[in-house]
Amino acid sequence: MRPRLRAGWCLPRRSGLLALCSGQEEIPRAKATDTVTEPTTLRGAHVLLRPATPHDIPALAAVRATPEVRERWRGGTDMAAAVAEDLAEPGSRTLAIEYADRVVGAIQWAEETEPDYRHANIDIYLDPALHGNGLGADAVRTLARYLITDRGHHRLVIDPAADNEPAIRCYRKVGFRPVGVMRRYERAEDGSWHDALLMDLLAEELTN
Fold first, then answer.
1. Which residues pair with residue 200 across a beta bridge?
2. What is the value of pTM for the model shown?
3. Domains of the chain (ranges, CATH numbers)
4. Residue 28 in contact with residue 151, Cβ under 8 Å?
5. Less Cβ crowding at N or C end of the chain, within 10 Å?
């Protein structure tokens, strides 16, 4: 099962292999709000993000079941149930990633609302057949822009596995920077523990 977000320690949990992108722009900041603004759709350069619904579970379960995604996200013997559990998880929002009129993955976010520590996290998985086309980076950037401009966050975090070099390279291109290695942070299906890399991004560092 996937680890749960803890109050006061808002971190994403797992990161799929993503593609690369480049460029930079200054992002305007919005005031922080106490009420969650739920987006209808968020449009990126290539992908569309929208709130995931139970109708998306079969497509998302199929992506989660691919070896590349399962290695990072796990899910047990009933992947549909694992996806349904994600959609129902309190405090976490899951958006379906659409490309070419089909669901190709999901991107999640959650936030710490304590004013003195306020920030948000992002996590994502994407159909491995589409890796290398810039779709993952487009999805991360699109959601990051929403969290900064609409939700008023000044800082975002993400924590790919320390050996997930493609994801780390992608997040660097979006603007995330390494903070430090979290040793033996996550347990794998075989019971072994592996390290994760904590990365963060400040609002003004988000790239095109």
1. 157, 177
2. 0.81
3. 42-158 (3.40.630.30)
4. no
5. N
